[in-house]
Amino acid sequence: MSGPVESLHDRGRAAVLAGTESVDVPPNPSSPRWGLSVLLRPDDDCAGRLADQAAQLAALAGPHHWQTGGRGASHLTVCVLEPFREGVTPDDPHVRRAAAALSRAAARSAPVQFRLSGLLLAPGGVLAGGTPINPPAHRLRRIVADELGEAGRFEGSYRADRWWSTLLHFAGPVLDRCGLLDWVDARRTLDLGPLAADRLELVRYAYDGGRTVPVPLASFPLGR
After folding, report:
1. Which of 71, 74, 120, 163 could make an SS bond with 50 (beta carbons 3.0 to 4.6 A apart)?
2. What does pTM read for this prediction?
3. How is domain 4-24+31-221 classified at the CATH fold level?
């Protein structure tokens, strides 16, 4: 790995080593993130592999951290449409416009496939890298952005062609800093296998008492 991904890992390592890692808090009106988002859920086999990695990470970092890679929470983000907003429902005007656009986007795409490989540290947690491995996966963000139009411009292009699935969000101090660094460093090229997704989801986020999880607002089969 090289370039932006390697730079992110280096920043994450430095933050954990210095004890300056970013700490997440449950979504609230001042949150700049955890807003209305478009995502892909992993298939069952992939979800199990991600959950296993998240549990191993929590054993090192501490049980108070969010196991975002656990079942019911793991995902790949396609794009984020706005910062956190309370009271978002399926009848919200912005949700309805976005849902209509995603229905059109899903109809233009076949199911997508990614390969998850290589863990990396970020200042706020641990990620598994993702790489599109079929043509629909390579095209998906472009199709979604095309259908969303201005509604999809909130996030900018910071994700570009990068994909990842977050395994652990830091929610307090890391308990075994050196152990965590060594564990992730040893898995920089770990192959977590394929991820297959056949639906686009529009979600809001909510804290369930132990982690922030995506809550579906609308879902569309790819290639219906």
Report:
1. 74
2. 0.92
3. Cyclic Phosphodiesterase; Chain: A, (3.90.1140)
